[in-house]
């Protein structure tokens, strides 16, 4: 048998695009289904994001009413369609959303850079069917709720962030650093740096940050507007996320400390031989000891013969006569 054995979890795992086609979903519908936990995903062992196993696709396809039931559970509507589901005016629907009675699940920016909130149609139907909500759907809005609206209350951004944190926490699947990274993604990077001061922990945490949502080119007005929705901007909400991140980090440190590079051993840390004591002087090497006992004299060099100036001149004249007879 070959030594390259592939486990069943990775042998038949599909990318999100392929899994969406297998399930008859658009890519956006698939992403929402994964966020809601309707489609179970697994991490790609090669670091390529989330994948869906063949067994999970078979499970969904075998469900009753597939694909209609799955499509119904990821159906989203805007304000106008949502108001029609609740049988209220668009104005009342918006007030309910601002009060936090109904929670958006998605948003996008239209061509006028206005925020368009989307809601799960299934949740709106459940809201309308609850008898406790009947007074909110007709008649005059209670005085205490009217006062909150007059004070500018708008819980849509905050509720969306809380919902997204729930999505990311589910995908973390109990991994402590991924759980901490999910909380960190709700805060401005400066807030995160103020809490995670250790550079090795900060780098390790960054590895698990979820893929950022993109709305327009970086620095564009659309991106700046989206940033105000993606990150906590209310003081009490920021304080809550900071405390949650600090707690998540404590758990991550206790279970899986952030990796650190091995410290190089310095010269001072290198083992050194013990110094020789006064009673036991250091013994010279055998070769050196032998040379000290029998010193070798330097090789005798023959002295050059003495030559006076007259001999040198006669020799030069004889050589010139021989050259020119």
Outline:
The chain has 325 residues and is mainly alpha-helical. It folds into 3 domains: 9-73, Multidrug-efflux Transporter Regulator, Chain: A, Domain 2, CATH 1.10.1660; 79-154; 157-255, no CATH class. It has 18 helices and 6 strands.
Question: Which key phrases capture this entry?
Answer:
mainly alpha, disordered N terminus, 3 domains, 325 residues, Multidrug-efflux Transporter Regulator, Chain: A, Domain 2
Describe this structure in words.
This protein is mainly alpha-helical and 325 residues long. The chain has 3 domains: 9-73, Multidrug-efflux Transporter Regulator, Chain: A, Domain 2, CATH 1.10.1660; 79-154; 157-255, no CATH class. Helix content is 52%, strand content 6%. The protein has 18 helices and 6 strands. A 3-stranded antiparallel β-sheet has the order 1-3-2. A 3-stranded antiparallel β-sheet has the order 4-6-5. Strand 2 (42-43) and strand 3 form a beta hairpin. Helix 12 runs antiparallel to helix 16.
Write the layout of secondary structure elements.
Layout: H1 8-11, E1 13-14, H2 16-23, H3 27-35, E2 42-43, E3 50-53, H4 54-61, H5 68-73, E4 76-77, H6 79-86, H7 90-98, E5 106-109, E6 115-120, H8 121-129, H9 134-137, H10 143-150, H11 156-172, H12 176-184, H13 189-195, H14 199-207, H15 221-230, H16 235-255, H17 286-293, H18 309-323
Antiparallel strand pairs: 1-3, 2-3, 4-6, 5-6
Unreliable residue runs: 1-9, 263-271, 276-282, 288-294, 296-303, 305-313
Number of helix segments?
Answer: 18
Percentage of helical residues? Answer: 40-55%
Distance between the termini: 98 Å
Strand order of the largest sheet: 1-3-2
Strand content: 5-15%
* Apparent shape: globular
Which series of helices and strands comes N to C? HEHHEEHHEHHEEHHHHHHHHHHH
What oligomeric state do the depicted chains represent?
single chain
Largest sheet: 3 strands, antiparallel
Number of strands: 6
Radius of gyration: 40 Å
How many structural domains are formed by the residues?
3
């Amino acid at each position: 048998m070959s030594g390259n054995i592939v486990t069943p979890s990775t042998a038949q795992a599909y990318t999100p695009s392929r899994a969406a086609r297998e399930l008859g979903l658009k890519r956006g519908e698939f992403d929402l289904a994964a966020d809601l936990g309707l489609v179970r995903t697994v991490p790609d062992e090669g670091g390529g994001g989330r994948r869906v196993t063949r067994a999970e696709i078979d499970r969904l396809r075998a469900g009753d009413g597939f694909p209609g039931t799955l499509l119904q559970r990821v159906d989203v509507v805007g304000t106008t369609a949502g108001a029609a589901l609740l049988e209220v005016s668009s104005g009342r629907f918006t007030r309910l959303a601002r009060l936090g009675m109904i929670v958006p699940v998605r948003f996008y920016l239209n061509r006028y850079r206005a925020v368009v909130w989307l809601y799960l149609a299934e949740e709106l139907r459940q809201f309308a069917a609850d008898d406790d909500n009947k007074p909110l759907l007709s008649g005059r809005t209670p005085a205490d709720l009217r006062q909150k609206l007059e004070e500018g209350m708008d819980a849509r951004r905050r509720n969306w962030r809380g919902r997204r944190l729930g999505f990311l926490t589910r995908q973390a699947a109990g991994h402590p650093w991924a759980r901490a990274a999910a909380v960190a993604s709700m805060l401005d990077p400066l807030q995160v740096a103020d809490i995670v001061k250790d550079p090795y922990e900060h780098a390790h945490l960054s590895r698990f940050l979820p893929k950022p949502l993109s709305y327009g080119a970086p620095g564009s007005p659309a991106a700046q507007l989206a940033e105000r929705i993606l990150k906590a901007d209310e003081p009490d909400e920021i304080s809550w996320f900071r405390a949650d991140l600090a707690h998540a980090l404590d758990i991550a440190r206790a279970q899986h400390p952030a990796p650190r590079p091995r410290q190089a051993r310095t010269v001072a840390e290198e083992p050194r031989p013990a110094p020789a004591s006064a009673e036991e002087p250091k013994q010279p090497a055998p070769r050196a000891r032998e040379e000290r006992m029998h010193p070798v004299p330097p090789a005798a060099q023959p002295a050059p013969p003495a030559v006076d100036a007259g001999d040198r001149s006669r020799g030069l004249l004889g050589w010139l006569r021989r050259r020119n007879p």
